[in-house]
Design brief:
elongated
Length: 316
């Protein structure tokens, strides 16, 4: 009996049962790797049968639809205006909240107005700190609003205190003087000028109602009052009698008249400087009506001490 196989093969090429052929396995694995690579490339391309041009067109349409669906962002001022309007509407539609807030605002405004506009409290000129007294007297407009007699009395108290002040008052006064500059210096000049101008204007107002026959005596008395006031404010004392003071005033007026008549008086530049000081220095703190009244009183007093008629200016 013939035991040879029908399809003779070599022993090396005959695979055993259950053992795969190495070349077949390699070919199979290569095919699988190729399929995997092909599918990977397809996945990167969208794993779709559409061409890249179709995909680009679809993406553009989707982006356009998304842009249409998203509204444009409002400007900040539009949003702010809308919120303000909504807040005002909410506030107005709630009467309790509205009236409560109005009342609170009115109370705050009243307190602020009281603090800002109230007169400066007058310090005690005998016991208050020296710098407080000096600031009120020289730098506050409220001092200028006091009656003239009250201002003069307060100044007398201040002068008496300065004469007898101790070391602590001296330090405060020195510190106050060191701080006077710029606007503070201008305010101090204003307060000092206002006192003199107000006193002179009071004399001028009263002078208008004096009968012509009594005006010489009135001019003598007001000259004495002004001279004594200036001496008091300067901290000076004089033992001269009223007659001596008036006699000195008449002699000085005569000398001035003779100097001007001889041409030895101040030149035009000096007179212009004096007029400018009276107009722009002292005059800037007075009204036009005060200046007019003061000039008339000064003219008549000068005529009186020069021995002339106050109405006509002619020698008696």
């Amino acid at each position: 009996m013939n035991t040879e196989p029908r399809h003779p093969t070599t022993a090396s090429s005959a695979p055993r049962f259950g053992t795969p052929d190495r070349s077949a396995v390699a070919n199979t694995n290569g095919a699988r790797s190729g399929n995997v690579a092909t599918h990977g490339a397809g996945d990167e391309a969208g794993n779709s049968l559409l061409t890249p041009e179709d995909l680009a067109a679809i993406g553009a349409r989707s982006a356009h639809k998304s842009a249409k669906a998203t509204p444009a962002k409002e400007r900040w001022d539009v949003r702010l205006d809308r919120r303000i309007r909504a807040g005002i509407k909410w506030w107005w539609n709630r009467p309790r909240v509205r009236w409560s807030s109005i009342g609170s605002f009115a109370l705050i405004a009243a307190v602020w107005a009281f603090i800002a506009l109230r007169p400066t409290p007058q310090p005690n000129f005998a016991t208050a700190p020296m710098d407080t007294v000096l600031e009120y007297t020289l730098l506050e407009d409220d001092f200028n609003r006091l009656p003239i007699d009250t201002r003069l009395d307060l100044l007398r108290q201040l002068i008496e205190r300065v004469k007898t002040m101790g070391a602590s008052d001296s330090v405060l006064m020195a510190a106050f003087a060191a701080s006077i500059e710029g606007d503070l210096r201008d305010q101090m000049m204003k307060n000092a000028s206002k006192l003199v101008l107000d006193v002179w204007d009071k004399f001028a107002i009263d002078y208008v109602g004096v009968p012509p026959d009594d005006r010489p005596a009135y001019l003598d008395q007001k000259y004495l009052d002004l001279l004594k006031m200036m001496e008091t404010l300067a901290g000076q004392e004089s033992d001269k009698t009223d007659a001596q003071r008036l006699d000195e005033a008449r002699r000085q007026a005569k000398r001035d008249e003779e100097i001007f008549a001889s041409g030895r008086g101040p030149d035009a530049a000096a007179m212009a400087g004096m007029a400018s000081f009276l107009r722009n220095g002292l005059g800037q703190h007075s009204s036009p009506q005060q200046q007019l009244r003061g000039q008339q009183l000064m003219r008549d007093m000068t005529r009186h001490f020069r021995g002339r008629d106050v109405e006509t200016g002619q020698r008696k």
